[in-house]
Amino acid sequence: AKEAGRARMTLYDPAMDTDRAQRNALELDLRMAIESGDLTLAYQPLVDAATHEMNGVEALVRWNRPGHGPVSPEVFIPIAETSGLIESLGLFVLRKACETAKQWPELKISVNVSPGQFRNPAFTDYVRYVLKQTEIEASRVTLEITEGYMIQNPQRTRQSIERLKSLGVKVALDDFGSGFSSIGYLRQFGFDRIKIDRSLVTDITTDSRQREMLQATVALARALDIPVTAEGIETEEQAIALRLFGCDCLQGYFFGKPMVADQINDLLQERREA
Ligand code: C2E
Ligand code: CA
Ligand code: CA
Ligand code: CA
């Protein structure tokens, strides 16, 4: 059946033309959005697992596509990757996030880095450049990297992480446990932090096998002395369990959804007045 499917792909299929046309249109709009600065950032609180106090935010890119409405980064980031737009998109996100976080001295700022950026040998240079330009303290910045690329290029990954760390920024392994995790590499890569994927968190209060999986994953990171953030926390029960299992930092709708910078300002203002 697989062979037949492949053979069919080579025949003319009008639906494929439509797909391609739609993708091209999306790519064109995305290019314009990047050039005209129409992308925005949302910020989601990161909280201390013990006190639930916000001590950082993760920057998440947002695109409101004209005539279409919001498009998920899970849709347009992969397109940016394959169309050569990821570099300018990534530069925009990093610069904007650092600029904005400057006004929040009490917070750390996490920024997602896609494999396409990370793979670029000039990436460290542009991180250095943005740090200098925005004058943010490097130690407040965490770059979140997903594991996909590293497994294929362990040697280069290690070098890239070393170079980034020499700038003073922190490097976190994002979405840990979501795919093919190579535990063996974890320590040698020198990650400052691991972020456990939401898929591992969702059922921990209802499914004992899920809970054990999660516990084992956190225990492993802790055995390597790597602090752990858990993402996707939606209930208080999850928050309590994750703290108990050893996560020191939590993130999820239970604490706060991604929000505009002004709302983070308001939260900080309230706290200063309290
Ligand atoms: P991620 O880095 O794992 O980010 C967390 C995602 O989970 C965000 O989705 C966030 O809104 C969502 N989330 C947070 N808490 C909860 C929760 O309690 N429940 C549920 N159901 N979801 C929660 P978002 O913003 O749609 O981003 C999706 C992915 O797109 C991100 O996953 C990240 O991989 C990528 N992404 C987002 N912004 C950027 C960016 O600026 N650059 C790059 N390269 N990738 C980005
Ligand atoms: Ca992330
Ligand atoms: Ca994640
Ligand atoms: Ca994710």
Automatic annotation (TrEMBL):
It comes from the Bacteria. Residues 23-272 form the EAL domain. This is Diguanylate cyclase (GGDEF)-like protein. It comes from Rhizobium viscosum (Arthrobacter viscosus). The chain holds residues 431 to 704 of 712 of the full protein.
